[in-house]
Amino acid sequence: MEQRELEQLIGMYGRDIYSFCCYLTRNKQEADDLYQDTFVKVLEMQAFPEDKEGAKNLLLSVAVRFWKEQKRKAARRRRIEEEQYIPQELKNAEISENLDTPEEHMIRNERNAYVRSCVEKLPEKMKVIVLLYYMEQRKMEEIVELTGVPMGTVKSRLHRAKKILAKELRQNQDVEVYVNGSFG
Amino acid sequence: MDHLDEILFDALAPRQKPDDALNRKIRMRMKGRTMEQRSRRLQTAAAIVTAVVIGSSVTAFAAWRYLSPKEVAQEIEDDRLAIEFEQNNGLAQVETQSCGGYDITLLGIVSGAKISDFSEHTAEDIAEDKTYIAVAIAHSDGTPMPGMLDADYDPDKMFVSPYIRGLNPADYNAYTLAGGFGNFVKDGVEYRILETANVEVFADRGIYVGVSEGMAYNNQAFAYDEESGEISRRADYQGVNALFVLPVDIAKADKEKAAEILAWAEHRRQDGTEQEGDQAGGENADGIAGKSGFTAEAEEFMAKLTADNIDSYAEPIESTRQTVMPDDENYVSYRYELPGGAGGNGRIRLDFLFEPGEYGMSGRFGYAADDGELAGLRIDTWTRNEDGTVTFVVYVPRKKSN
């Protein structure tokens, strides 16, 4: 891969992959490292998918693989003082492109921040599926391929995650939600 | 009533942007690793060189239009290096040489331990001591150098390297001296910062910085006199062959460190099997003596491997098999991808692999492993066929049967 292709790659997928890394690791330094390692690894590959979705899937699969490996290593040397990386914009009000009224906008921002905090607390195995599905908008078949987890397990983890999130939202945000049982 | 799917899609839309400094680190790592990989393949291949001494040099002094080395370091977000260039640039006079349609300007040189924010990217390194050389490359006619997003952008078009008087530049150059570089284009000028082992410890010998076309040392651009040890520009060469003699302080010479660097570079040159990137180093890396972070098991495996017995111990990955013709310079190039995504490419000179008239598989192998482990070994093999073609294929150790 040449440098200009790297620039295109970063331009097209930098934000998606970095967001994914932030939520997976919840630690800025680790997110930075994971993001870097992912791109560098992909750059080493000789055959790079030309289609947009294929390229993104490759980046995500490498990120997931590195993340799993990192977790395995980190288990042996976990720091006592773990920095909780919650990007500033997650804590504060965010800029929305939708035309809510100021009040709706504020409510929505608060709700979204709460949803993200709930997602962060999900068990790791559920979290990665949720992020791939909702953040990266991968199809179920792609998630199976990216994670190596069987389809039934992916569906079950996603469904269980949604139930947990729905319950949290009902209890703490007074938001009425329903869980759709079918995916993809 | 809100639908949970909608809420989640909305709440989890990607919002975190990697900052520019992070993306620059990727570029630096990309360049460093590319050079590491190439050195693994090419360092020994480039060992043979013919030397004809003709030298001349046309030098001009004009650098007002370029960034200072401090500014170059700042552009690549390397604050420590920027400070170092500001305070300790070893170059009193900025020098420009014009050749092959380019103006090549040596902007600065600094050396020392931990003077760069990016120094960690050459993991299994020879030493913490590094030299950083800042260079500007511009078209002599003033047309802008292609930017990174331009179709004709090619950072591999020029090879910037330090050379040491008395040491064959084909053997001792940016590849074997643990080189890597970061670059960018600004206002039509390409700037590079090259990182290598600290070459200022060779101050008593004399140090050059050469810029030439191609991806490796170019013996058509430069000449090496084995008797005097002098390196010079070939006067009849029409391309880029800038060669700067560094005004280093002889007090910086350190014979002990120089010997360490030479031993390390020699190991790389002879062995030709440097592990790839950061991952192979890790806990097993033990520097020069320990040969590059491969486990003892992997080293033993490679030590016993010959062209005759390789099929007993290892098996080919058929998807990597390719038969190629040597080019005009007697090199063969190859490129492959392994199942699972890893891959490699290289270019190697046949003189290094085969004796004249020798056919069949070469007894010289390249090898690498992601973790330095036997199980992860990938062994590069080359076989010369009677029709003059060369077949390249990657082998992996056979799995032990129960």
Give an overview of the whole structure.
The complex is a heterodimer of chains A (184) and B (402). Chain A is mainly alpha-helical and 184 residues long. Chain A has two domains: 3-74, Rna Polymerase Sigma Factor, Chain: A (Orthogonal Bundle); 101-173, Arc Repressor Mutant, subunit A (Orthogonal Bundle), CATH 1.10.10. Chain A has eight helices and one strand, in the order H-H-H-H-H-H-H-H-E. The two termini of chain A are 33 Å apart. Chain B contains eight helices and 19 strands. In chain B, strands 2-3-4-5-8-7 form a six-stranded antiparallel beta sheet. In chain B, strands 13, 16, 17, 18 and 19 form a five-stranded antiparallel beta sheet that branches. In chain B, helix 3 packs antiparallel against helix 4 (79-88). The longest helix of chain B is centred in the N-terminal third of the chain and has 23 residues, at 20-42. Chain B is globular. The termini of chain B are far apart. At the A-B interface, helix 1, helix 2, helix 5, helix 6 and helix 8 of A face strand 1, helix 1, helix 2, strand 14 and strand 15 of B.
Any descriptors?
heterodimer, A: 184 residues, mainly alpha, Rna Polymerase Sigma Factor, Chain: A, Arc Repressor Mutant, subunit A, 8 helices, disordered C terminus, B: 402 residues, alpha+beta, 2 domains, six-stranded antiparallel sheet, 30% strand, globular
Short description:
The complex is a heterodimer of chains A (184) and B (402). Chain A is mainly alpha-helical and 184 residues long.
Mean pLDDT over the residues of chain A: 74
Q: What structural class do the secondary elements of chain A suggest?
A: mainly alpha
User: Count of helices of chain B?
Assistant: 8
CATH architecture of the largest domain in chain A: Orthogonal Bundle
What is the CATH topology descriptor of the largest domain in chain A? Arc Repressor Mutant, subunit A
Largest sheet of chain B: 6 strands, antiparallel
**Helix percent band of chain B:** 10-25%
- Which CATH class of the largest domain in chain A applies here? Mainly Alpha
Number of E strands of chain B? 19
Radius of gyration of chain B: 23 Å
The number of helical segments of chain A is 8
